[in-house]
Amino acid sequence: MSSPRPESQSEQQQTPPGTLGEMDPKPDHGEESYRGSGRLTGKAAVITGGDSGIGRAVAIAFAREGADVLISYLDEHEDAEDTARYVREAGRTCVLVPGDISDKAHVKTIVPKAVEAFGRIDVLVNNAAFQMNHESLDEVSDDEWDHTLATNLTAMFVLCRDAIPHMQAGASIINSSSVNSDMPSPTLAPYAMTKAGIANFTASLAQLLAEKGIRANSVAPGPVWTPLIPATMPPEKVESFGQQVPLGRAAQPAELAPVYVLLASDEASYVSGARVAVTGGKPIL
């Protein structure tokens, strides 16, 4: 796959969580470019936030590599159905589970639905996240703080805890962290804090699960062009989004998917406890 070179994004604004239909330019999720080679044949995967962005790109790639997929998403039904279409066109099963993962009662329904559909879980991708840009801590309400932690941290914890009993040796947990995990943006303080927590939790999990033969890794993306960006940042920041990294642009979701495929595959059998940077040249510690 050649590196996408899309036209730069213009000033634009959406309401959270954002949808693909309103984005300009449209992100590339590998719909036309990703070619599978059987690296995940027969595996069953759960992906949160799989309707758009990184999650959609991962769902498409996983399916074309031979995996069945359950996609958890909030309420972007049109985007989710479109992602499911690509999964099914690859000849794989796709289960859609809408709902707010900040609601613990809802998040507890996801693993049972995957087990009902697939009989087991081979790959768990905790990718869904919430962020909001604020210039002052006074702008962060108690409700927003609680919602950020519930979405980004608690849901991940519950899904890991619920999924592990249905995983066998060789299974893989992949959690989406961020370059913000150790280089936090001051205007994304709650989000950045949760992303550091994800990286730390994943490192602990890798050690806890080693004796079971289950691997746990995190991916630390830099700027990625997804609906979350115009839905949570002011228009002027959207226009310049991604220009601060050495490669000078935001990533396309399709550029993240191969890393998730590797970590999910048996080829990464000795990779556990890693945090993989996909940051356009911006180093992480």
Compact overview of the structure:
The protein has helices at 53-64, 77-89, 104-107, 110-118, 142-163, 189-209, 228-232, 235-239, 257-264, and strands spanning 44-48, 68-73, 94-98, 123-126, 172-176, 215-221, 275-278. It has 285 residues and is α/β, with parallel strands linked by helices.
Report what the structure shows.
This protein is α/β, with parallel strands linked by helices and 285 residues long. It has a single domain (20-278), classed as Rossmann fold (3-Layer(aba) Sandwich). It has helices at 53-64, 77-89, 104-107, 110-118, 142-163, 189-209, 228-232, 235-239, 257-264, and strands at 44-48, 68-73, 94-98, 123-126, 172-176, 215-221, 275-278. The chain has a seven-stranded parallel beta sheet, with helices on both faces. The model is unreliable at 1-6 (pLDDT under 50).
Intertermini distance = 28 Å
How many strands, which pairing sense, and closed or not: the largest β-sheet? 7 strands, parallel
* Total helical elements: 9
Beta-strand content bin: 5-15%
The string of secondary-structure elements, in order, is EHEHEHHEHEHEHHHE
Oligomer: single chain
Second CATH tier, the architecture: 3-Layer(aba) Sandwich
**Strand adjacency order, main sheet:** 3-2-1-4-5-6-7
CATH superfamily: NAD(P)-binding Rossmann-like Domain
Number of strands: 7
Low-pLDDT runs: 1-6
What is the overall silhouette? globular
Structural class: alpha/beta
Mean pLDDT, all residues: 91
The tally of structural domains comes to 1
How helical, in percent, are the residues? 25-40%
**Which CATH class is shown?**
Alpha Beta
User: Radius of gyration over alpha carbons?
Assistant: 17 Å
CATH fold topology: Rossmann fold
